[in-house]
């Protein structure tokens, strides 16, 4: 048994074969000027502070040959997988599918839709493309995890209260034991990040656990 010091109490991993690191949406569209995040009116530089920590976690999983799953929020070029409710939301100048400085906003294959170069997936790592905020919606993620016998998920990425939290809630309802790595996730709104951390671990861990990257590395040994 592997114990990771966490809140509201220690996170227990039966063994390292049951765990995957899920890195949510570390894309240029969210972290760099000219992408979707900025089109929504956000200061995207806030998200860049977690890049070294996410990289450290990736390196630790790579060194131990443990599974890594990256996700990308994106839409098909014809936007047929983007419902009007998502397409038309917001009052920004640029909408999903419009051409911005990094190519078409939130469209698969465009320069801005790629994962930032520092965290690029390596061959053999899974990349889940997802049209929604949650990584289980309209994807093969659940089947892939069940097929590999993975029961425990460690979460990093952006943004804490949108795609990370949505995916953790989806995972929790499907019976996966979910741990959020606090210093490997970030939000455009610090108060939303803090609230998310607190609501995840409230009520005895109603959605899951939270911890630090250092605790994860110590626990994995
Ligand atoms: C958002 C995400 N915030 N990855 N996406 O629209 O959190």
UniProtKB/TrEMBL annotation:
Q: Enumerate the Pfam families for this protein.
A: Isochorismatase
> Is this entry keyworded Repeat?
no
Alphabetic keyword roster: Hydrolase
In this protein, which residues make up the domain named Isochorismatase-like? Answer: 20-207
Chain ranges passing through the membrane:
none
Q: Does the keyword Hydrolase apply?
A: yes
Q: Which domain of life is it from?
A: Bacteria
MF terms per GO, please?
hydrolase activity
Q: What is this protein called?
A: Cysteine hydrolase
Q: Which organism is it from?
A: Aerosakkonema funiforme FACHB-1375
